[in-house]
Amino acid sequence: MQDLWTQVDRYFSDLLIPPDAALDAALAANRNAELPAIDVTPLQGKFLELLLRISGARRVLEIGTLGGYSTMWLARALPDGGQIVTLELVPHHAEIARINLRNAGIANVDLHVGPALETLQALVANGAAPFDFIFIDADKSGYPEYLEWSLKLSRPGTAIVADNVVRDGKVIEPDNTDPNIQGVRRFTELVAAEPRLSATVLQTVASKGYDGFALAVVLR
Ligand code: SAH
Ligand code: DHB
Ligand code: MG
Fold this sequence. Notes:
By secondary structure, this protein is an alpha/beta fold. It has helices at 2-16, 21-32, 42-55, 69-76, 91-103, 116-125, 143-152, 179-193, and strands at 59-63, 83-88, 109-113, 133-136, 159-162, 197-206, 209-218. The chain has one domain (2-218): Rossmann fold, CATH 3.40.50. Strands 3-2-1-4-5-7-6 form a seven-stranded mixed sheet, sandwiched between helices. A hairpin with a 2-residue loop joins strand 6 and strand 7. Helix 2 runs antiparallel to helix 5 (91-103). The termini are far apart. Bound molecules: S-adenosyl-L-homocysteine, 3,4-dihydroxybenzoic acid and magnesium ion. 3,4-dihydroxybenzoic acid (DHB) is lined by residues 38, 137, 163-164.
């Protein structure tokens, strides 16, 4: 099936996503720098861009930058004065992301290097304004804590999207010992138990396999 998913991805990308020098150069730079090829796909990146446009988001938080490919999609949706705060653990990833963003002429990104949990705690301690949109895409084992801290950085109406919550379907294996699987399972359990959130999951197949997004909206 993977071959078919890849061909269908290409069919829709070719129609809906015109070649973009900055985005293409960022992907090439990421591969050159030997970053793992786990960026969102172009169609998924555009999906995020459109969600931001629909929600009118101005302040965006991204947890897990890698080379900034998803960051670039998020940045396209922002109005003048909009801002992205993005968090990355690995200095090498952050360095490549900075170069990609600079080459793309994207200036309104605040990239914090370090464990996301520490940065999130610092943002809350420093009284950061709430975010309109939060994209969770770092280590899957950290998703439960990222959700808790994201809620502290939210307001009613904030949208929270979490990538990779299906993991080839392994999410339904309660006894799977992979901390990534346990992380996404616990994440969804916390979302389900949180009365402030209303949520759904969209399973996806794509050039990068079988996975899915969780979408939650903060109600109050
Ligand atoms: N959002 C990116 C892909 C992110 S891949 C895109 O779609 O283009 C996940 C990233 O999370 C990796 O770069 C990894 O280094 C980072 N990461 C892993 N653990 C982290 C942590 N504890 N804090 C912050 N970032 C982390
Ligand atoms: C992984 C992480 C991602 O963010 C992703 O989109 C795909 C895979 C991973 O860690 O395996
Ligand atoms: Mg991901």
